[in-house]
Amino acid sequence: MKHRNQVFDNVLDLVGNTPLVKLNKITSKFEGEFYAKVECFNPGQSSKDRIALYIIEQAEKKGILKPGDTIVETTSGNTGFSIAMVSIIKGYECVLAVSSKSSPDKIDMLRTMGAKVYVCPAHVKADDPRSYYQVAKRIHQELKGSVYINQYFNQLNIDAHYHSTGPEIWKQTEGEITHLVACSGTGGTISGTAKYLKQQNPNIKIIGVDAFGSVIKKYHETREFDPKEIYPYRIEGLGKNLIPGATNFDVIDLFVKVTDEDSAHTAREIAKTEGLFVGYTSGAATQAIKQLGEQGEFKKGDKIVVIYPDHGSRYMSKVYSDKWMKDQGFFDTENQEAAESIQYIK
Ligand code: PMP
After folding, report:
1. Could you write out the DSSP letters of every residue in 313-344?
2. For burial by CB atoms within 10 Å, which of 15, 153, 311, 314 has the most?
3. Contact present, 151 and 185 (Cβ < 8 Å)
């Protein structure tokens, strides 16, 4: 880091070195100490800053990228935002091919960050020339000197976390970490972090979090891709309907599946108990801890680190909207109070 007295050359110097924050209430009925790696402290408010910066800098080192060249990716999510941010500082064009299911807010956010956005029809097959995969591929092939990040199949996604998230957690826990709990989407975070941690201490237990409706957990257990596992779910950022090449299944000890509803309530509970306003998958990861805790997974002296990948502000029209929660049928009698906590003075 090139900074003194908290003065930085540019926003990219703020990527990484995120804090570990002790969880004091939400996990208090379980043995062990629990710490959240709070990734919204990255300047782009998510863990994806790490992979965007790392992958682009690797391409620069290999001489693939020169100023004015183009970076291409297929996401309206956190990775798109991070690539746009890195592109601004380093002087690249950023082209994002996104699905027409992406919210207008997300597209506006990417446009604000200088990205050129192609909105592609959501309901076409992946091999249709109009799909966002094919549009991104075509742009990448046509533009000499462009880089396609391809986060689901890029080994550098794993390397980024091997070189940053893993060593940070090892140092922050002074080597005392016993468990890592992380959601698996591309699998880059859990695979890279776990690889580093297991090299330091092979006994550290690595727990992946998967969604109902995703193929990942079953694949880990059987090495079989089972399309029957696939059905729609609401949490964005974890689970998948394909086997990502950026997941190293060998360094993960077990997967836990969580529901949309439990994860949503747990995300809200994190805000109310810990004062941490984090995203839906932070709720999912904490929900997995609760399920494991009930099964007696944790014992006195354990140090459990859970990754909180992003900030709550990206979910205002979803998990943090009472209307959305109601529309999903997530406010049952038990949670009715939360739905009625606003009082309008007339
Ligand atoms: N949470 C959120 C909000 C994400 O955007 C992602 C990335 N898809 C993840 C968790 C999972 O991280 P990874 O892709 O490294 O497995």
Report:
1. GGGTTTTT-HHHHHHTT---GGGHHHHT----
2. 314
3. no
Whether residue 73 contacts residue 149, with contact meaning beta carbons closer than 8 Å, is answered with: yes
Catalytic residue among 29, 37, 48, 257: 48
- The model carries a pTM of 0.95
Closest to 107 (Cα-Cα) out of 53, 307, 99: 99
Residue 245 has what DSSP assignment?
Answer: T
How remote is the CA of residue 16 from the centroid of ligand 1, in Å?
Answer: 15
pLDDT tens readout for residues 230-273? 988 889 889 888 899 999 999 999 999 999 999 999 999 999 99
Query: How is residue 125 written in tokens?
Result: 């097959």
From 189, 210, 236, 266, give the residue whose CB has the most ligand 1 atoms within 8 Å, as the site to mutate: 189
Maximum alpha-carbon separation in the chain: 64
Calpha distance 144→65 (Å, rounded): 10
Distance, CA of 31 to chain centre: 27
> Catalytic: 217?
no
Q: Which residue has the tokens 């949309």?
A: 260
